[in-house]
Every structure is written in structure tokens, then in C-alpha cells.
Amino acid sequence: MGDTTPFDEMYNPDGSVREPYRALAAWLEEQPDKALTLMQSDAEAIFRKLGITFAVYGSDEGTEKVIPFDVIPRIIAAQEWRKLSKGIEQRVKALNAFLYDIYHRQDILKAGRIPEKLILQNSAFAPEMMGLEPAKGVYAHIIGVDIVRVGADEFYVLEDNLRTPSGVSYMLEDREAMMMLAPDLFQRQKVAPVENYPENLRRTLESVAPAGAGSSPNIVVLTPGIYNSAYFEHSFLADQMGATLCEGPDLFVDGGKVYMRTTTGPERVDVIYRRIDDEYIDPLTFRPDSMLGVPGLFNAYRAGNVTLVNAPGTGIADDKAVYTYVPEIIEFYLGEKALLQNVPTYNCTDEEQRNWVLANIADLVVKEVHGSGGYGMMVGPTSTKAMHAEFRKKIEARPDNYIVQPTLALSTCPTYVNAGIAPRHVDLRPYVLMGDEVRITPGGLTRVALKKGSLVVNSSQGGGTKDTWVLED
């Protein structure tokens, strides 16, 4: 995995500027003192005015915070992006094929390529989906693939997000803010646009509408409501693509079809982009105590009268234990080697690997299989001995509940911090849309760990975001 010095995306080891960053470096040189400080405060004012906030669970200082935004963009060369997008496309096609197989013939399990227990006894597996034919055979229509870079040509997939990947609104707003703050910088380079994402999202959703939906299907975004941490994004995306934002009580099922209550009477709904977890979408099929869902929704879906995006049960393909098998999944369904590698991952259910992990826990990253948002994880080198001991106990008690990875030296990008411009670790979440075709937005959301030396980029853990520029040839 290379040496432990992190790869600097802007500077070569000899201090010269890497090609994609040359125009930016020249621009930064020209900026008068305080210019970046002013840009930074303008950016914060823009985001505050737009209401771009996220909820921090369990935080004492008011729950709504503005996500910190860094005014220095991250830049990806055209040829780097071509390579990345090929690998991403291969991955999402294989994961969709895997989902189709798991909910139909289960050939991969019969072939012994993945342990049956890992799938069939997994809480993310939805037996209710067995034999169901989703529109166009697509289960995961909206996917976020988390990618880290550790060298000039070394990219790894950290995880796949196939349930309800969030953050796309930050990608769009980061770009809009940068265009307002530094229009002169855009004129120096050809930056691939991201602003057609909402239109592409709409096209993708229309392409998977049920057969009788006609030429302009009725699309709604189903949100758990204003107290959800990603509510800003739900309303933003509904607004951007001209769909209606609904909560569970706004919808009802009649005669196996879904309708929306409107002031002029019921209106038939064709596609539901849901931002509610599986177990809450229909109290008649899943959790009976759910107040967020729509009674009878799953049967309407099963009958093919409405499309749910993403399909229930897709979480089985982004389960962190299943992640370790993705290279195998790509080979099984596509007959190809994975173009993008996984981060090497230790399987704690294997006794030999588990013993090695327990002995070396101080150098490793431990993640809960179903954890997200940086919760339920431990970064060995930055944790206390007491935490190492606690996670050793947890792994011994439930080895199947954790995956363990080496601590990667994530690449760094120049970032504007209190002390001036300094390198900070970043990751990347490109967004993929799958319907009648695969649409990948050039770039995605770059998350940056703002604390010096920190490797945790999640906004819930003090991270921020940057605009991501993919250069065009």
C-alpha cells in the first residue's frame, strides 16, 4: 500500500505542482492577503442563507449546523476520471446483477462463491423481495461509491452505498457556490459540469416507471420529514427535478395503486424516490409500528403498479461483510477482473485473521458491519488503549459484526484552514444513476477531514466538503 507518507494531489515530492493543479496554483499565488478568508465567510453566508445544514445527533450545541465548506477545489485530470468511471460502472453493473441473482436463482450461493449464511441470515436481506421483477431489472438506481486515493495511480473503493446514498445536494451547492465565489478561476480551465444531475435523476426515474405510466410519469420524493438529518437534500432534489415532496400520510393505496392526496383530489403516483429505510416503508409488510410509511405500498410495488427507488433489500449489496466479496461478484457476473480494487479487508470470522487483528488492533480501522456516518468505528492509531481493549472484546463477542482494514494514508489536498493553506485528507463519493443507462456525474462529493492528521471525513465527525473539478480534455 505504498509508504506511510500520504500522496499529495497538488504537489510532486520535489515540490513542483502536478499538471491538473497548475492553473489553480497560479490563481492562488495571485490572491491578495485575506481574499480566501473573505471567500470562506461568503461561502458560509451563502450556505446559511440556502439553509444547507445537517442535523448532528446527540450534539448539545443546537442540532442544525452548516457543513464546513472549503474554497480550494479538488481537481481530477480527465484521464484519471476516465479510469475511475470505467471501474465505477463495472462495479454498479455487477452489484445489480448480484441483487437480481440473490432475489431469484441464487446461483452465486449455489456455486459456493459467497457463504449462504452471510446473505440469508443478514438483516439487510429482504425475503419479501424473492421472485419480484423490478422495472428494467434494476434494484439500485442511485448509488454512491466511496473512493480513496493513496497514490498517483492508486484508487481503492472504501464502500458502496446502495440503500439511500446522501450528499448529492452538497455536490451541487458546492459547485454553485464556487461559481459565484471564483468565476475567474473557472474561465482558466474546462471543468465538467455537475449541474445536470437533477435532470439526469429525473430521466433515470422516468425510465423505470411502470408500463402504464405514459410519457410523463408522476414522481414523488418520500421523506421521513423535517427532523431527518438529510431533509434539506430531500426537499432540494424534489424541487430541482420538479417532483412532489411527500411524507407517508400524503400517500395512500387503493386497488393496488398508489395515490397522492392533493387539494384537487387523488393523483396517481408512478415512481417513488424514497428516503426512508426499508423497514419503515410499509407497516403492513415490514415494521407494523412505523408511522413513516404507506400501508399497502409493498403490495402495490409487488404488483408492478409503482416503482420504488431504490428497491427494498438492496442493502444486502452494500453490507460491509458482502463488500469483501465484490471482486468475486464482478468476476462471477461479468467475467472480468475488478478495475477498482477494494481496500484489503480482514474477515474476523476466520480464526487466523481474527487472531492477527486482535494482536495488531492499534494499527487498524475497525468498522461495524451495519454502521454508517462514522459511528460504530474505531481508527486504531488515533484511539486510546481503553478503546483498543473495548473493540477487542466486541470482536471476540461478535466476530461477524465487524470488518477490519489497514489504516490507509489517504491522499491530501490543499485546504484553507485557520493557519492558512495546509494539506488535509480527502475521500470522494461519485454518484451513479442506473435506469435505461448508467449515468455517472463527473466528480462527486469530496469530503475533507478538517482536523490536522484526522482520517475521518464524515460531517457528523467534524469533516467538511470541497467542490470537485473533473477537467475535460
Automatic annotation (TrEMBL):
Alphabetical list of InterPro entries matching this protein: ATP-dep_Glu-Cys_Ligase-2 (IPR051680), CP_ATPgrasp_2 (IPR025841), UCP005522 (IPR016450)
Residues of the Circularly permuted ATP-grasp type domain: 73-449
Signal peptide limits: none
Protein name per the record: Uncharacterized conserved protein, circularly permuted ATPgrasp superfamily
